[in-house]
Amino acid sequence: MKGLSRRGLLGGAAAAAAAAGVAAVDEAAETRASVRDRGPVAGPATVFPNDPRYQELTVGYNQRWVGRPDYVRVVSSTEQVVAAVQEAVDAGKRISVVSGGHCLAPFVFNDEVKVVIDLAGLNDVYFDTRRGAFAVEGGARLSNVYETLYKKWGVTIPGGMCPTVGIGGHTTGGGYGFLSRQFGAVIDHLAAVEVVVVDRSRTARAIVATRDPDDPHHALWWACAGGGGGNFGVVTTFWFRTQGRTGTDPGGLLVSPPKDVLLSAVGIPWSMLDRATFTALVTNWGAWYESAAAPDSPAKALSGVASLAHRSAQNVFLLTQVDAAAPGAEGLLSGYLAALTSGLGVDAVVAAQPAQKLPWLHAVRLIAASIPSFINPTLRGSSKSAYLRTSYTPVQAGAMYDALTRTDFANPAGAVTLAGFSGGAINAVPSTRTALAHRDAAFWTLFETQWQDPAADAANIGWLRDLYGAVWSATGGYPVPGEQADGCYINNPDPDITDPAFNRSGVPWQTLYYKDNYPRLQRVKAAYDPRGVFKHAQSITAAE
């Protein structure tokens, strides 16, 4: 797999929030104390520009974005977050928050941010007996979440492939991965959140908001379930329990991953592809996922990624995972690969690369280890996204082919990644149940490029803009929600989406990310962040 590229709602809620502030902090602290003895909690670390750690703590996964805050506060408890937020608010300093550091746009690290709150010390994963749910603290990384949940209780959340992604941004944006067609998005298992917010009197406090519709803070839970990171406050703890699960056995309260999976990695040499066969591959892919998008599809046990890297990478890859215990799993996989490669003349190439049967956690580790960009700390990058209800057209596939075979651009990390992480169980949830509105897509696509040399910024960014603009030229450069497309994924934020020079669709970026859920998100913003303390270049604005 070497060479793969990645990547009456509120009512009196505002008043209730203010009234419940101290109680919420006490309740949250009581919950944590009743679960397990954490022992002494380390005090917060404050890192100033003259500290050798400062450089490391002011840049994330995307090396293009470097911050220059007055200091970074590394916290280890909710109480420390409350204190850090209050201190910054009192001093009138702009705040940003780091969970895993994978924000692909300059939302966290930029010149306007004066205080970065880093949740690295707040990273426990445990079973909360009081809430009957699994608690994952806001600074945990996906690799630790998967390892801990599975080894201790045999359960998981259906999250993404990259091991170093933080739970905070991943969950608040929705969260997808290889198990999502089978079990839903990460937020479909989100039972509660603890959020540090700032009220109109500029007082910071922690609030616990739950999935229960009768919870006075239910609107805050709803917004944190797909509304994107950095919008409403600092999420210090996520609690996960699958909807409808009851009992006292933790192993029965969250979904269990497959015991074994069939993992297939098929590389198709670019030398075997021309414009017609490449177009067939792209349209075949879309047709298969379109046919398998229904919540009751028997094919929801299968998810795949097609990494269509630039011709200089020499190959394109089909990475596929199937629940080995699903009825007819081997036939499902072979039929899928046959459907995707129909008309390409690569049957022998596919047959020579058989699937492996692996324990689920082995497969998680293997995928992570096989994609070097997941753990490479030196990369700069640019990315864009699109949800699709139906397949790409031959014209759109041809535009991809033109960009991926350009001879004046030869970066093997430039790619179109077709991600089969939509449809199935994700589409069983109404679009208004959570803030994640994209509930009838068949698949989504990541358009991306990564590089190391700052001198290559213009060439890479320009190439990606040309590619994306050509694919979506018929709708003004962006995937306007309609019969074919369904907007963009907030967890792949795109700085160009607000610029009319690139987004000529006439459709505002808020609609592309949130569709009809945006006005409701604005009302939540007004109730829980009325002073606009938590903001970035594409943050939700409060309703007037």
Automatic annotation (TrEMBL):
Keywords (A to Z) from UniProt: FAD, Flavoprotein, Oxidoreductase
The keyword Oxidoreductase is annotated on this UniProt entry: yes
InterPro entries: BBE, FAD-bd_PCMH, FAD-bd_PCMH-like_sf, FAD-bd_PCMH_sub2, FAD-linked_Oxidoreductase, Oxid_FAD_bind_N, TAT_signal, TAT_signal_bac_arc
Pfam families xref list: BBE (PF08031), FAD_binding_4 (PF01565)
CC cofactor: FAD
Superkingdom of source: Bacteria
Ranges where the FAD-binding PCMH-type domain occurs: 64-245
Tagged with keyword Chaperone: no
Family indicated by similarity: Belongs to the oxygen-dependent FAD-linked oxidoreductase family.
Protein name: FAD-binding oxidoreductase
Species of the source: Nonomuraea maheshkhaliensis
